[in-house]
Design brief:
By secondary structure, the protein is mainly alpha-helical. The protein has two domains: about 15-140 and about 225-254, no CATH class; about 145-215, no CATH class. The protein is built from ten helices and two strands. The protein has a two-stranded antiparallel ribbon.
């Protein structure tokens, strides 16, 4: 359980942000996203400051822009939903050429677009500078309930195992001539998925019984403890403090 598990969102580096304590980064992410969410949507200048903070941290972490923007594709569903609001919103209409858009829908679209993008960007930054096992360590140090961290740890450990089983099942089906070309031929794939679920459930029971036999009590006292040198990197919290000052000022002025 203590082995490291790399993920596609992580970017290997040696910046101060990479070596910062994971609990500090998690707390900074939570406070930053909360400040973004609480900011009135009409305070455009405040979101400009948030974007500047995010770009500054990406620069400090030395993350390539292409890497960061590619991972930001997770924000696409929110972008698509935001673009629909001006067309289906109610209230006064604004005519832009041959388009008739709702003014309330435009404000709602801006609200969703900017907040979702900033939140996703901050999350991608955390994932790019923090290994998965370090995130679990940070959650434990922030006193998150052990049940939640244990579930997350098991999920991380066995996600790759289940993904490997899925790949092998797909290869075996292809080797036997399974190549669906229309929806009615998806039934074997659904059957294979059900069998994979049952095997995964049974594997989980066997692993749990084996851990109980070895004295498992529901906690991992040393599995995710990181004894390597880490820095607090207080400038990250200073930038978050700037975000909160911006949010409060925007709320007062709006």
């Amino acid at each position: 359980m203590s082995g490291a598990h790399a993920h596609a969102l992580h970017y290997h580096g040696h910046s101060p942000l990479h070596h910062a304590a994971p609990q500090v980064k998690l707390a900074a992410l939570f406070l930053f996203v909360l400040a973004v969410v609480l900011t009135p949507p009409v305070a455009v200048w405040a979101f400009s400051i948030y974007a500047a903070i995010l770009v500054t941290l990406v620069g400090v972490a030395s993350i390539p822009p292409r890497f960061f923007l590619t991972r930001m594709s997770i924000d696409l569903p929110f972008v698509l939903f935001a673009f629909l609001l001006p067309f289906v919103g109610e209230g006064p209409r604004v005519d832009l050429g041959f388009l008739s858009l709702s003014s309330e829908g435009l404000l709602g679209a801006w609200n969703i677009l900017v907040k979702a993008t900033l939140g996703a960007g901050a999350s991608v930054l955390l994932a790019a500078t923090t290994e998965v096992r370090d995130i679990i360590t940070g959650l434990r140090k922030l006193k998150v309930p052990i049940v939640l961290t244990a579930i997350a740890a098991f999920m991380i450990r066995y996600l790759e195992v289940i993904a490997g089983e899925m790949r092998r099942t797909r290869i075996a089906m292809t080797a036997r001539g399974y190549d669906p070309s229309w929806v009615a031929q998806i039934r074997p794939l659904a059957t294979a998925g059900g069998a994979l679920f049952i095997r995964s459930y049974e594997r989980g029971e066997r692993v749990h019984q084996a851990m109980l036999a070895r004295g498992f009590t529901g906690d991992f006292p040393d599995a995710f403890d990181d004894h390597s040198e880490e820095i607090r990197w207080w400038p990250a919290l200073a930038l978050v403090l700037l975000a909160w000052v911006t949010m409060i000022t925007a709320s007062i002025l709006t």
